[in-house]
Amino acid sequence: xxxxxxxxxxxxxxxxxxxxxxxxxxxxxxxxxxxxxxxxxxxxxxxxxxxxxxxxxxxxxxxxxxxxxxxxxxxxxxxxxxxxxxxxxxxxxxxxxxxxxxxxxxxxxxxxxxxxxxxxxxxxxxxxxxxxxxxxxxxxxxxxxxxxxxxxxxxxxxxxxxxxxxxxxxxxxxxxxxxxxxxxxxxxxxxxxxxxxxxxxxxxxxxxxxxxxxxxxxxxxxxxxxxxxxxxxxxxxxxxxxxxxxxxxxxxxxxxxxxxxxxxxxxx
Length: 268
What we know:
alpha+beta, endopeptidase fold (from Nostoc punctiforme), two-stranded parallel sheet
């Protein structure tokens, strides 16, 4: 046995492979950390530019985009058209309502006017009937007296107009075989030396106004207002008158009730 066998060796003990690997890994980690830190410092000092790649527009994608745009435009056009139709319908309904209201107003006005016209016509008929009754009564009362007092100038006037019964009516006629109303009256009074105006309007104010209930043979009857009369004739007594009426009848003798006059004037 060696005399140094019991003395520990002064040589460094051998390191195992695992220990060496671990230490190498630690060293590698430290170096990696330092490298990352250095890289981070470099990045902080100098900005990094990133590049993005845009997608490429293919033919199909372009067609889809165009189709979508067309669809959007068509939808907008359809919406606008519908809005215009709705507005037009609303305006038409409003106008129809206004037209209906106006038609109702016009119908009501027409109804009122028709009612007023009917009322006036009824009042006029009643007035004419009353005047006819008054004239008939007056004529009945005065028949004998008026016949017997038709003398002198009145008798001559009456004889003349009666002699023309059956002659034709012609507007502007003054005889001897055709007459208008004022032409016949003018010619009749000319027989007794009285010059009357030519037209009905003037003849209706040529003498003294008399009441229809106090007529005498030879009085001039007129239709319409005094001064604006449209027809004249001669009262011949017995509730009758002679006048050139119209183209259909010519010169005729009629009762006062046939067409009640508006007034009378006395020349004799």
